[in-house]
Amino acid sequence: MASKQYPINKGINKSIVFKGLKAQYIGYMGLGLLIDLVFYAVLYMLKVNTYVTLLLTVSLGALIAAGVYHLNAQYGEHGLEKALAKRKIPRRVRSFSRRIFR
Predict the structure, then answer these.
(1) CA dist list (Å): 96 to 84, 92, 99, 100
(2) Where are the membrane-spanning stretches (predicted)?
(3) Residue 90 has what pLDDT?
(4) What are phi and psi of 99, to 5 degrees?
(5) Residues 72, 21 contacting (CB under 8 angstroms)
(6) Using CA atoms, how far apart are residues 31 and 36, in angstroms rounded to an integer?
(7) CA 69, CA 61: separation in Å to the nearest integer?
(8) What is the dihedral of CA 60, 38, 54, 31, to 10 degrees?
(9) Backbone phi, then psi, for 84, in 5-degree steps?
């Protein structure tokens, strides 16, 4: 009796990559493009000229995409969280009393 062979998933614990974007940057891109869509809808409801609306929307979308790809290339998969966490660490701790050390 022949046993079934199942393929082994060798991508365990690897981050998701989509068109060069890694991990959380996929979400950032999706959120940015959703904001761009809402921006387009607002301009459309305000009856702004169609060509101006398209120009602004495409420009904002390109700016968002360039920014997200830049962050992806500069910080990598976990670097942005590390950089943001490093900014929250105080540079020095000052104490005016020795009482807490006794």
Answers:
(1) 29, 13, 9, 10
(2) 25-46, 52-72
(3) 86
(4) -65, -35
(5) yes
(6) 9
(7) 12
(8) 40
(9) -70, -35
pLDDT of 60-76, one tens digit each? Answer: 999 999 999 998 889 88
**Residue entry with tokens 């998701």:** 16
Phi, psi of 90 (to 5 degrees): -70, 145
Residue 9 near residue 48 (C-beta atoms within 8 A): no
Task: Flag whether pLDDT at 78 surpasses 90.
Answer: no
Q: What is the pLDDT of residues 15-44, one digit of tens each?
A: 777 787 888 888 999 999 999 999 999 999
Domain residue ranges in the chain? 17-74
Tokens of 90: 């105080």
Token look-up 């702004």 returns: 48
| Total-model pTM | 0.68
